[in-house]
């Protein structure tokens, strides 16, 4: 497998969104002691078409070896480097309600290169308490402690989300994962990714309802 650094300059957003899926599939192969995997096998594990997978990986300069496939370890390392996972990223979870508690206790962050270092809330009754082994701080303390590079996870109620995003940006945050069920506005140069659990459930409900309709049509046809 060859890699061409020049090919990595402009990777489409759609491809970037699929890289974590490929990495998860590769790690699954690695856990089963699989050293080489074909594009067809990797595509099936990732739930994409093999032609699309090959095109995605070509943006990294990774082309595999004809008749052999991809080296699982090497491709995993290549994708990890592209995703910036060659070192741990510091994470601040903002909002210590039920969702914030759950995210603070989630062990999966650490296994994927993200270290939760700060829990942030503005409620005086919560600031100073300990959750999942970390002391809850306010934004003033985050401004003192936070390094230059930090990813914020927004887990506030919707009415507090914009203010929390503004405060996060004010202390230097440039990347936000927004779990709040609303949109937030940020300055240019700040990246926001939204996780809308209700929307995802509604999409699943749509497919569930359509599946029931198909089953009903089949029964009536019989």
UniProtKB/TrEMBL annotation:
<keyword id="KW-0804">Transcription</keyword>
<dbReference type="GO" id="GO:0051775">
    <property type="term" value="P:response to redox state"/>
</dbReference>
<comment type="function">
    <text>Modulates transcription in response to changes in cellular NADH/NAD(+) redox state.</text>
</comment>
<keyword id="KW-0520">NAD</keyword>
<keyword id="KW-0678">Repressor</keyword>
<feature type="DNA-binding region" description="H-T-H motif">
    <location>
        <begin position="21"/>
        <end position="60"/>
    </location>
</feature>
<feature type="binding site">
    <location>
        <begin position="95"/>
        <end position="100"/>
    </location>
    <ligand>
        <name>NAD(+)</name>
    </ligand>
</feature>
<keyword id="KW-0963">Cytoplasm</keyword>
<dbReference type="InterPro" id="IPR009718">
    <property type="entry name" value="Rex_DNA-bd_C_dom"/>
</dbReference>
<dbReference type="GO" id="GO:0003677">
    <property type="term" value="F:DNA binding"/>
</dbReference>
<dbReference type="InterPro" id="IPR058236">
    <property type="entry name" value="Rex_actinobacterial-type"/>
</dbReference>
<dbReference type="GO" id="GO:0045892">
    <property type="term" value="P:negative regulation of DNA-templated transcription"/>
</dbReference>
<feature type="domain" description="CoA-binding">
    <location>
        <begin position="84"/>
        <end position="183"/>
    </location>
</feature>
<comment type="similarity">
    <text>Belongs to the transcriptional regulatory Rex family.</text>
</comment>
<dbReference type="InterPro" id="IPR022876">
    <property type="entry name" value="Tscrpt_rep_Rex"/>
</dbReference>
<dbReference type="GO" id="GO:0003700">
    <property type="term" value="F:DNA-binding transcription factor activity"/>
</dbReference>
<dbReference type="Pfam" id="PF02629">
    <property type="entry name" value="CoA_binding"/>
</dbReference>
<dbReference type="InterPro" id="IPR036291">
    <property type="entry name" value="NAD(P)-bd_dom_sf"/>
</dbReference>
<comment type="subunit">
    <text>Homodimer.</text>
</comment>
<dbReference type="InterPro" id="IPR036388">
    <property type="entry name" value="WH-like_DNA-bd_sf"/>
</dbReference>
<dbReference type="InterPro" id="IPR036390">
    <property type="entry name" value="WH_DNA-bd_sf"/>
</dbReference>
<dbReference type="InterPro" id="IPR003781">
    <property type="entry name" value="CoA-bd"/>
</dbReference>
<keyword id="KW-0805">Transcription regulation</keyword>
<dbReference type="GO" id="GO:0005737">
    <property type="term" value="C:cytoplasm"/>
</dbReference>
<dbReference type="Pfam" id="PF06971">
    <property type="entry name" value="Put_DNA-bind_N"/>
</dbReference>
<keyword id="KW-0238">DNA-binding</keyword>
<protein>
    <recommendedName>
        <fullName>Redox-sensing transcriptional repressor Rex</fullName>
    </recommendedName>
</protein>
């Amino acid at each position: 497998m060859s890699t061409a650094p020049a090919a990595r300059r402009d990777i489409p957003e759609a491809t970037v969104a699929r890289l974590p899926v490929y990495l998860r599939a590769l790690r699954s192969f690695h856990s089963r002691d699989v050293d080489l995997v074909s594009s067809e096998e990797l595509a099936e594990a990732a739930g994409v078409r093999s032609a699309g997978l090959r095109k995605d990986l070509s943006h990294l300069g990774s082309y595999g070896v004809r008749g052999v496939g991809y080296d699982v370890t090497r491709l995993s390392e290549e994708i990890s480097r592209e995703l910036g996972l060659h070192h741990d990223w510091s994470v601040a979870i903002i909002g210590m309600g039920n969702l914030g508690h759950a995210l603070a206790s989630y062990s999966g962050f650490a296994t994927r290169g993200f270290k939760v270092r700060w829990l942030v809330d503005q409620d005086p009754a919560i600031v100073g308490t300990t959750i999942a082994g970390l002391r809850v701080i306010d934004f003033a303390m985050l401004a003192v402690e936070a390094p230059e590079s930090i990813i914020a996870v927004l887990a506030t109620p919707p009415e507090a989300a914009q203010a929390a995003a503004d405060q996060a940006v004010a202390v230097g945050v440039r990347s936000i994962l927004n779990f709040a069920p609303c949109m937030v506005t940020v300055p240019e140069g700040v990246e926001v990714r939204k996780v809308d659990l209700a929307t995802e459930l509604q999409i699943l409900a749509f497919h569930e309802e359509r599946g029931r309709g198909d089953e009903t049509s089949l029964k009536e046809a019989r």
